[in-house]
């Protein structure tokens, strides 16, 4: 059966690629990737040279059709994203969907994902966690979404780009209150990797204390909500956030 290999790549440290992933990359006929320069760089590092097909969020539909046609012609293709696991806040889902609908097979080659990497060193109770990914960029939408998450009894896992970290941490403090723990996991597996855990009330000052702390890629984890004490105060707090959003 023709197979698409959905293959995880490093999130920073180039050595975090599996032996199996390297083996498959050396066998496939082509590699579908988000950014050809990025993937060429990774393959070069391991002495692998393969035709690259661009498959990013702006051409996912056409890329899916091309990949299905090539698989049907008997080729073996690997799908990678720029970093981590394809399909996790990254293109890939539509391509896999098209492959499955065509009656072909998608085989996962597991490896790093920033969310799971951050969770593993968070020390937060994580028998239940909820992956949120990127919050909406518009403040109102973001606030509404966070208000809806305030009572979720699971660790929340968010992705954030460097230019919005200050804004996002302020929004988290506003939505979840001062006492819950937040973990700021920055530049994981890279040279300036930092994992800092503190109550939400202390997070803005921690970030402000050093401009380096505002740079790079972040995973943010928020401690699960405790069982809600039904004194009405928490409900009022959330209702007020939602009402302010409507006005
Ligand atoms: N597919 C990837 C995965 O499996 O983690 C996620 C891709 S998403 C477009 C990129 C986001 O992942 C970044 O903005 C950041 O939130 C997070 N991320 C990726 N690499 C990271 C790293 N080394 N350290 C911290 N966060 C990272």
UniProtKB/TrEMBL annotation:
Catalysed reactions, semicolon-separated: cytidine(1402) in 16S rRNA + S-adenosyl-L-methionine = 2'-O-methylcytidine(1402) in 16S rRNA + S-adenosyl-L-homocysteine + H(+)
Record flagged with keyword Transferase: yes
Domain called Tetrapyrrole methylase: residue spans: 3-203
Sorted UniProt keywords: Cytoplasm, Methyltransferase, rRNA processing, S-adenosyl-L-methionine, Transferase
Gene Ontology MF annotations: rRNA (cytosine-2'-O-)-methyltransferase activity
EC number: 2.1.1.198
Keyword Cytoplasm in annotation: yes
Subcellular location: Cytoplasm
Gene Ontology cellular component list: cytoplasm
Similarity section: Belongs to the methyltransferase superfamily. RsmI family.
Function: Catalyzes the 2'-O-methylation of the ribose of cytidine 1402 (C1402) in 16S rRNA.
Name this protein carries in UniProt: Ribosomal RNA small subunit methyltransferase I
UniProt organism field: Glaciimonas immobilis
């Amino acid at each position: 059966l023709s197979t698409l290999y959905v293959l995880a790549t490093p999130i920073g440290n180039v050595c975090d690629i599996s032996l199996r992933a390297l083996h498959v990359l050396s066998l496939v006929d082509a590699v579908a990737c988000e950014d050809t320069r990025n993937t060429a760089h990774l393959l070069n590092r391991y002495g692998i040279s393969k035709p690259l097909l661009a498959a990013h969020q702006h051409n996912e539909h056409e890329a899916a059709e091309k990949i299905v046609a090539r698989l049907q012609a008997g080729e073996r293709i690997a799908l990678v994203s720029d970093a981590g696991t394809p399909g996790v806040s990254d293109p890939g889902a539509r391509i896999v969907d098209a492959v499955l609908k065509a009656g072909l097979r998608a085989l996962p080659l597991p490896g790093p994902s920033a969310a799971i990497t951050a969770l593993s060193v968070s020390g937060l109770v994580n028998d239940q966690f909820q992956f949120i990914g990127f919050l909406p960029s518009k403040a109102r939408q973001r606030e509404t979404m966070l208000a809806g998450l305030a009572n979720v009894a699971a660790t929340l896992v968010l992705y954030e780009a460097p230019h919005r970290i200050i804004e996002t941490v302020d929004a988290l403090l506003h939505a979840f209150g001062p006492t819950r723990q937040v973990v700021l996991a920055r530049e994981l597996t890279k040279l300036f990797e930092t994992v800092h855990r503190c109550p939400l009330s202390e997070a803005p000052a921690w970030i402000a204390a050093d401009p380096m702390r505002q740079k790079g890629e972040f995973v943010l984890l928020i401690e699960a909500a405790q069982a809600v004490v039904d004194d009405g105060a928490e409900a009022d707090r959330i209702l007020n956030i939602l009402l302010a959003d409507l006005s």
